[in-house]
Design a protein that fits this description.
By secondary structure, the chain is of the alpha/beta class. It is built from 13 helices and nine strands. Bound molecules: guanosine-5'-triphosphate (GTP). It holds the Pfam family SRP54_N. One of its GO terms (biological process) is SRP-dependent cotranslational protein targeting to membrane. Involved in targeting and insertion of nascent membrane proteins into the cytoplasmic membrane. Acts as a receptor for the complex formed by the signal recognition particle (SRP) and the ribosome-nascent chain (RNC).
Length: about 400
């Protein structure tokens, strides 16, 4: 009897022990995970993963940095209710579509040049017309002269009037002008301790916010962890516009709800959140500043200096609107005096036959065009490649 009683007691004790261990395990699993509890590695989940059914992940935790007075309301956009995150179009498909669009918008230029070069006899009048066509495409005076001179002497030396041969020569000379040797890669690789930081600058209305949104999509499609900083505190709706772009691909946005808050502080907080959250890339949108307003341009320099207190700025992308032609060049020069521009984003190339501006800008600044905007759609941003650009012009 005694023996039976001890067995029953043993069984009860054993059951109680197993029960409490199980309860402990379940509770441990339910403990919410912080974004990256330890150093991030390849197995960590990607915030805002491109997977079509993912929901938004909470933005990085609070920072312990002292927030300036006018930024008391600085906040990261609260995680919105679960929503479907868009999957950006893969790079290859996007490029093929955009190439076709570029070819279409520059059709007039390509057709005019080929028609001229196909004439029975390439005489002085034809050369004059070629010159005029290139100038109208915003190639700029010096590059136009160089190209026409080079082509003339090649045609003379070869004695060829065969349109196909002349076309091939024109292609080669144009590629030389666009310069395939320039490094057009984007510096978006994370450093050991800090994210890559990309600042996007330019005058108002050129497409900065749209470019930041499109670029975030490209990076998310490449499985990068991205965070946006809305340092455009000048235009009230800009932060909202940026946060909407971010939400679409599941990327958090650091912003201030105070109108006219100090943009440098917002940029600082964004980079801080990027460091704490161990993201790969922080993209900073800035206000469209009028390049003739000295105060605003000084402010842009300050934004950069403040960011650099915590992390290197890897790219400063100057956004220029291709439809503004030579005016864009004047803007570019003023910006280059305030910050070191590392690359150009040429937007609205879909709406102009003035693709020649690419050459003029690169010549003036000595900085490569790295990206081109070819439409208002979310995936209408393409890396710039000299050869395919020229092929699109001449197709
Ligand atoms: N067709 C075309 N439109 C574009 C392109 N990029 C931007 N846009 C449009 O240009 C307009 C201005 O774009 P935003 O991104 O708001 O310009 P922003 O430079 O941020 O403007 P501010 O915030 O006022 O400084 C919007 O209507 C965009 O849809 C492009 O590559 N092609």
């Amino acid at each position: 009897m005694n023996e039976t009683l001890s067995i029953v007691i043993y069984v009860l004790v054993a059951l109680a022990v197993v029960g409490s261990v199980a309860a402990l395990l379940v509770r441990t699993r339910r403990t919410p995970k912080s974004m990256y509890p330890t150093r991030r590695d390849a197995n960590d989940p990607v915030t805002g993963s491109a997977a079509g059914t993912d929901t938004l992940e909470a933005p990085p935790g609070e920072t312990d940095v002292v927030v300036p007075d006018d930024l008391r309301d600085l906040e990261e956009t609260p995680a919105p209710p679960a929503r479907t995150i868009e999957t950006p179009e893969p790079v290859q498909g996007r490029l093929a579509r955009l190439r076709a669009r570029l070819a279409k918008s520059n059709n007039a230029l390509g057709k005019a040049l080929l028609a001229l070069l196909s004439s029975d006899k390439i005489d002085e009048d034809v050369w004059d017309e070629i010159e005029e066509t290139l100038l109208l495409a915003d190639l700029g005076t010096e590059p136009t002269m160089e190209l026409v001179d080079a082509l003339r002497s090649r045609v003379k030396v070869s004695g060829s009037q065969d349109p196909q041969e002349v076309h091939a020569m024109l292609r080669e000379e144009l590629i030389k002008l666009v310069d395939p040797t320039m490094d057009r890669s984007l510096a978006v690789e994370r450093h050991a301790e800090t994210p890559a930081v990309v600042m996007v600058v330019g005058v108002n209305g050129v497409g900065k916010t749209t470019t930041v949104g499109k670029l975030a999509r490209v990076l998310v499609a490449e499985d990068k962890d991205v965070l946006l900083g809305a340092a455009d505190t000048f235009r009230a709706a800009a932060a909202e516009q940026l946060a909407t772009w971010g939400q679409r691909v599941g990327v958090p946005t650091v912003r201030s709800d105070v109108d006219g808050a100090d943009p440098a502080s917002v940029a600082f907080e964004a980079v801080k959140a990027g460091i704490d959250g161990e993201v790969d890339v922080v993209l900073i949108d800035t206000a469209g500043r009028l390049q003739n307003k000295v105060g605003l341009m000084d402010e842009l320099g300050k934004v950069k200096r403040v960011i650099e207190k915590q992390a290197a700025v890897d790219e400063v992308l100057l956004v220029l609107d291709a439809t503004t032609g030579q005016n864009g060049l004047t803007q570019a020069k003023v910006f280059a005096e305030v910050v070191n521009i590392s690359g150009i984003v040429l937007t609205k190339l879909d709406g102009t036959a003035k693709g020649g501006i690419v050459v003029a800008i690169q010549r003036t600044l000595g900085v490569p065009v790295k990206l081109v905007g070819l439409g208002e759609g979310a995936d209408d941003l393409a890396p710039f490649e000299a050869e395919s650009f020229v092929d699109a012009l001449l197709s």
